[in-house]
Write a structure and sequence with these properties.
The protein is mainly beta and 700 residues long. It is 4% helix and 60% strand.
């Protein structure tokens, strides 16, 4: 195969099935080789995916470009086995990893934690997908490098950045995208300059999308959004051994709709973010010592601020004799300071990563209420209370992880971690109107609290390369998750007959025992990966209805999640490949003898792709989701669905410019269905119907 054909083949494989990077190397004169994907999140240094026990998934910038919708990187991540999309709007999406989501999944931006405590997720919506180089996902507690919250997994969003170059260089990137569902567009641009001792990078992005339509032209009112983002990075190399990197990001959103309301707000009300702002500052220092044992020493510090201004209106009136809200305006400000010091030690048979990290997370919130009181009191009343008290959570942890090469075929990975967490909160009052037009009275909901938790993580993973084609892996892990601020202290009036949702300051940490077995085959034209896993979680945190008008968060003594993932690829011709994956999960609340909430139904993809030396590529696949009837009491199931999807594109390089054009088509047959994991009360949230998106990208 010629060099141009090899490059096109690799690009197509990267785009259509990032787990199967197979190509011909020009350096070997056309000899076939296998490119093993390399990740940095699991081990804390660059390590091949085949040497990493436990599930790891990667979505590249090509996967993001080919996604039919541009609301979130979730649109690309959901193509990976074991990952399902959750959330309540195109912008405020989140993911579930093997049945666990929300506070059970740690979100990182360039390796730094993003904290948020809200039932309307916004961690992933703040990051523009066009500014992302790749996303690495750890499925389950496969690493000791991350503390509380990682029992479900870790998502590391790695942004675009240049590198040091021997000669001065400058590069640029521009992309524009227009879509039919939701209707609107997005624009992205970046520029960089680099040299031997310094580089600089700047990017900007803007998105404006209207309402989404479900299958059969069913409009999802209040589902549009507008946002913009700017980011600056600077890299310095003051000496051959020292590298410094500074990063600043600012993201602003407005009129972000949450169609139908969410489980944390009054039923049938209109809920939106009138404004949302995210700020991020990061500083990294890497010292390349290259000593006999201590190879590198790394330190990073970061600050994030996450602000949301929620507006809840169109609230259904209450009984004629009772006061009812006209409008609610909750606001929240989440600030996190953190840092990590990490060293990498190497011997002939060992690579040891050890260090300590800390973060402190502060939350301030207030909820403004406009109430109406019928006669005889009559008239509107305005006052405020809090959905959560002012609170702070502090975490300090030490960790160590050793990759031990027992021989050429066997690698043992051992990891351990110890964390101390402390959560403090001020008293919290529920302010309710008293008789008279201007009077209020206070009801104490939570007193001043000071809770401490001591948690740990232990894992042992063995990888056995039986020969050049086959390998096996086995992982055993024990991990924990302490309740976050929202789970401990939330107070949400759900409205109507649903009552109120309360946190629980005395929640015990979740304790997880996890096991995973993997079997892998890789020899052209075949590649396959099988994963079998089980997660036993004691003191699992879940909602529990204790009365007709009160729901509380409580610990479930014994929760179990079992599952299997299978993905594979058959390159049946030089330019043609068949790919597919399937995920099956089963979750059980053994204490209450019912299904576990938030566990996705059986789902998978099957498709074919084509690449050509000219730069043309194409892909067609079908997404299959089985019906979900295993649900907790009083939770509706979901019907199964099959959607047909396609994408095609063209790449060409001329005069130093790289042109890329991609057309993505999703749900071509306009199937009407809903996502079981998008929890709504009193509203059916239909998934998007037919979507067409055209994207153009220019690089130099």
């Amino acid at each position: 195969m010629e060099k141009t054909g090899a490059k096109a083949f690799l690009l197509g494989m990267t785009l259509c099935c990032p787990a199967a990077y197979t190509a011909y190397a020009a350096e070997t004169g056309g000899q076939e080789i296998t490119l093993d994907p390399v990740t940095v999140t699991a081990r804390g240094y660059a390590a091949s995916q085949s040497d990493t026990p436990g599930g790891v998934g990667v979505a590249t910038d090509d996967d993001i470009m080919a996604a039919a919708r541009k609301g979130s990187i979730v649109d690309a991540l959901e193509r990976l086995p074991g990952i399902a999309r959750t959330g309540d709007s195109p912008w405020a999406q989140d993911i579930s990893i093997r049945g666990l989501s929300g506070p059970s999944v740690v979100i990182l931006l360039d390796g730094k934690r993003i904290n948020t405590a809200t039932d309307m997720n916004a961690r992933l919506g703040f990051i523009n997908p066009a500014d992302v180089e790749r996303v690495e996902v750890l499925k389950g507690p496969v690493s000791a490098l991350y503390g509380s919250g990682s029992i479900g997994g870790v998502v590391n969003i790695i942004t675009r950045k240049p590198s040091f170059t021997g000669q001065p260089e400058s590069h640029g990137d521009f992309s524009a995208s227009g879509g039919s569902n939701p209707g609107g567009g997005s624009f992205y641009g970046s520029a960089s300059a680099s040299g031997e001792k310094a580089w600089v990078f700047a990017s900007g992005a803007y998105r404006d999308y209207g309402n989404t339509y479900g299958g059969h032209d069913s409009r999802l009112d209040n589902s549009g959004f507008t946002d913009k983002q700017g980011r600056v990075m600077v890299g310095l190399k003051p000496s051959p051994a020292l590298t410094l990197q500074f990063e600043a990001l600012r993201s602003l959103g407005k009129d972000i709709g949450i169609p139908g309301g969410v489980s944390s707000m009054p039923e049938l009300a209109r809920v939106s973010y009138s404004g949302a702002a995210f700020s991020f500052l990061g500083l990294d220092a890497v010292l390349d010592l290259n000593a006999k044992y201590l190879k590198t020493l790394e330190a990073n510090f970061y600050y994030t601020e996450n602000k949301r201004y929620v507006r809840v209106d169109r609230i259904p009136p209450g009984p004629s004799t009772a006061a009812y809200p006209l409008e609610l305006r909750p606001t929240a400000d989440h600030q996190t300071w953190g840092g990590k010091l990490q060293g990498t030690f190497e011997t002939e048979a060992h690579v040891l990563v050890a260090g300590l990290d800390f973060w402190t997370w502060e939350v301030e919130s207030v909820r403004y209420r406009s109430m109406y009181r019928p006669a005889p009191a009559g008239g509107p009343i305005q006052f405020h209370d809090s959905p959560t008290p002012d609170a702070r959570q502090v975490s300090v942890g030490v960790f160590a992880e050793d990759n031990w090469k027992l021989d050429e075929a066997l690698t043992l990975n051992l990891g351990g971690r110890l964390d101390y967490l402390r959560t403090k909160a001020d008293p919290m009052y529920n302010v309710m109107p008293a008789p008279g037009p201007n009077n209020t009275s206070k009801t104490l909901l939570y007193g001043r609290t000071d809770e401490s938790d001591l948690g740990w993580h232990l894992h042992a993973g063995l990888t056995w390369k039986m020969d050049q084609r086959w390998s096996q892996s086995l992982l055993l892990a024990s991990s924990y998750r302490a309740a976050d601020i929202m789970e401990r202290y939330k107070y949400i009036n759900l409205g109507g007959s649903l009552g109120s949702l309360y946190g629980n300051p005395e929640l015990d940490p979740e304790q997880s025992f996890y096991v995973e077995y993997g079997l892998h085959y890789d020899k052209k034209p075949w590649r396959a990966d099988l994963r079998l896993f089980g997660n036993s979680v004691s003191d699992y945190i879940a909602e529990k209805r204790v009365s007709a008008d009160r729901v509380e968060l409580d610990n479930v003594d014994d929760a179990r999640i079992y599952g299997a993932e299978l993905e594979g690829r058959w390159q049946f011709l030089d330019n043609w490949g068949l790919f597919g994956n399937v995920t099956a999960l089963y979750g059980r609340d053994r204490e209450n003898h019912q299904a576990l909430p938030g566990v996705a139904p059986v789902s998978g993809r099957l498709g074919v792709d084509f690449t050509h030396a000219s730069g043309f590529w194409a892909r067609a696949d079908t997404y299959l989701m089985a019906a979900q009837h295993r649900t907790p009491d009083n939770v509706d199931g979901a019907h199964g669905v099959a959607t047909l999807n396609a994408a095609l594109g063209y790449r060409r390089q001329a005069a130093g410019l790289k042109h890329e054009l991609a057309l993505s088509l999703d749900n071509i047959l306009d199937a009407r269905y809903r996502n079981y994991l998008a929890h709504q009360r009193g509203y059916t949230l239909w998934e998007p119907g037919f979507s067409a998106t055209l994207t153009y990208r220019l690089r130099f």
